[in-house]
Structure formats: C-alpha cells, structure tokens
Amino acid sequence: MAIDPHLPIGFSPLHRLQWEEAQQKHVILYPEGMVELNQSSAEILKLCDGSLVLAEIVSKLEEKFATTGLTNDITHFLNIAFQNGWIKQS
C-alpha cells in the first residue's frame, strides 16, 4: 500500500515523534521500542500533522531548504513510514 497524494498525512496516534536529548536526534517512540531518525526524516515527519497532503509537504520542505526536486525522495520516505505504521491517512 502506498501514500495517496490527495489525502492529508498524519502521524499515527500509536507513535510519538520527539527530540531525544540522550541521542541528540529526533526519534519515534512506540510501545515496542524506538526508531532513531536522521534530520531529513524528522523534518518530513514534523509536517505530518494531518492537515497537509504530499504536495504541500514537499512544497514546504523545498521552501525551507531553498531547493527543488525533493518529490521522489519525500514520497519514497513517506511510503516507508506508511508501511511501518508511523503515519496514517484518513
């Protein structure tokens, strides 16, 4: 299953995105454990608030980092996040 580009993307209520001081990075916490994130992954997931669709997330990140051409990389990461249950669509 893949991300539907027309539906808003939200963070799963079963997971929590937070800054972990001990690791000096963002992590995803869930009952079974923790996933450490690199900076790019954390920036993408911070925008998964349930109000933005894929194109809006891409646009905001391209604007923030003054670049273009991020659609494929962001889509690929979000598909992985979706398959792992970190994000959801309604």
UniProtKB/TrEMBL annotation:
Keywords recorded for this protein, A-Z: PQQ biosynthesis
Q: Which GO terms describe its molecular function?
A: quinone binding
Q: Name the pathway.
A: Cofactor biosynthesis; pyrroloquinoline quinone biosynthesis
Q: What protein name is recorded for this chain?
A: Pyrroloquinoline quinone biosynthesis peptide chaperone PqqD
Entry keyword annotation includes Nucleus: no
Would the keyword Disulfide bond turn up in this protein's UniProt record? no
* Alphabetized Pfam families for the sequence: PqqD
- Which NCBIfam families does this chain map to? PQQ_PqqD, PRK02079.1
Q: What is the lineage of its organism?
A: Bacteria, Pseudomonadati, Pseudomonadota, Gammaproteobacteria, Methylococcales
Superkingdom to which the source organism belongs: Bacteria
* Summary of subunit composition and partner proteins: Monomer. Interacts with PqqE.
Q: Which InterPro entries match?
A: PQQD, PqqD_bac, PqqD_sf
Native organism is Methylomonas paludis
Task: Cite a single GO BP annotation.
Answer: pyrroloquinoline quinone biosynthetic process
Gene3D superfamilies per the UniProt record, alphabetical: Coenzyme PQQ synthesis protein D (PqqD) (1.10.10.1150)
